[in-house]
């Protein structure tokens, strides 16, 4: 299975702008029920990522005021990206090698297509394993 198989049906790409306050970024994460969001510049190019851990580690743990900070103050700038033709197995390998839980998905023109989380991939893997187990069970124990 490829990245395109997972993100192809998504209707919305979640992102915030560089000048978004950390307070609003945290509210956006909660509202959209996601753990990370892409940060885009004025041209729509992805320039960073803000995750729950960025907010907790770089703001709350440091006792800083999220209303006074901008996304650029805490975003992760070293991005690990994939394209839609990459396999989910390769995505898992990239996540493991980089110790991350989200990948930035770019199109052929380097446009931001969204993010792929470890949860997205594990849901597919678990579903595939369940289907295999059901098939094996049906083979071993046919209905009588």
Topology:
Layout: H1 3-7, E1 15-17, H2 22-32, E2 36-40, E3 46-51, H3 52-60, H4 71-74, E4 81-83, H5 88-98, E5 102-106, E6 112-117, H6 118-140
Parallel strand pairs: 1-2, 4-5
Antiparallel strand pairs: 2-3, 5-6
Structure description:
With 144 residues, the chain is α/β, with parallel strands linked by helices. Helix content is 44%, strand content 19%. The strands form two sheets. Strands 1-2-3 form a three-stranded mixed sheet. Strands 4-5-6 form a three-stranded mixed sheet. The model has no long low-confidence stretch (mean pLDDT 90).
Distance between the termini: 34 Å
Number of helices: 6
- Provide the β-strand percentage band: 15-25%
Number of domains: 1
- Calculate Rg over CA atoms: 18 Å
Proportion of helical residues: 40-55%
| Largest sheet descriptor | 3 strands, mixed
- Under the CATH scheme, the architecture is Roll
CATH superfamily: CBS-domain
